[in-house]
Write the structure tokens for this entry.
Amino acid sequence: MTRGRRVGLAAAIALALFAAYEVISSFVAFTDDAYVQSDLIALAPQVTGRIIAVEVADNQDVAEGDLLASIDPIPFQLAVDQRRADLAEARAQIASDQHRIASARDALAAASSAADFARENEKRLTTLASAQDVSRVALDQASDTLRRADAARDAAQESVAATEATLSMHQATEARAVSALALAEWQLARTKLAAPTSGTVTSLSLRVGDTAQADVPLIGIVDARAWRIVANFKESYIRGFTVGSTAWVSLDSNPWHLRRARVAGIARGISREAVPNRLLNYVAPTTDWIRLKRRFPVTLTLVDPPSDLKLYMGADARVVVLP
């Protein structure tokens, strides 16, 4: 075979391979830039205290609601007892106020009755005095008695108003005591750290005697209910993807097995800069010193995975999607 024929044959083979690639890639999309993902729950206590018990070990599977660790409850129980005593005191004070109000209202009723009687008596003596049937001295005494009765009634009204104001103040104190007791009981309940979901404890370094700080993560749990595959596909592929498209996944942690999957989501954007804490994912456009086309994350979920399948967060995978 002449050199020209060999060159022509090589060119024909290359063209055929390119055509075959284009035809195949129009029906299937493949990437080996994929990995297993789940949600890492950073469990943080809501109160500050000393750890007195750690109920789990590193890499242990836990179920939702399982006890993970305990914070010393004694300071929180003492706070609850104090708040209960404060509430009891406030309620006793309210009961005393209510008794005082009842007494003040009785006194007001008596003073009002005396004032009414003094007024009627003063009117009667005024009528008699006009007919000169009673002395001026008696009328003056009746008028003085009426003034004293009115003053006593006004004082009784002020006493009722003052005791009612005191009751309102102590009722506000009771409301604050109820709120403080609820907060103390809530804090006491938060001394037990329970698993918020089923999963696996990871990178556990918590020990008895450590001080737990509120809102500072102590225990990490890999969520057992959030497993998914994230595959980065070239932008030329994703235009043919739809949610629900069939895919096949090969896991490096479970080689030589193809797992059926479904496309669950397709990213609508990526960051072109490797800036941390961005809401858009950054997918590096280079691998092994070769610049690639931009790739977009596609999320897939396994269809009916076997119950004994072990998934590992961050493990590599390979994905084929049938657009």
Notes: The first strand starts at residue 29 and ends at 37.
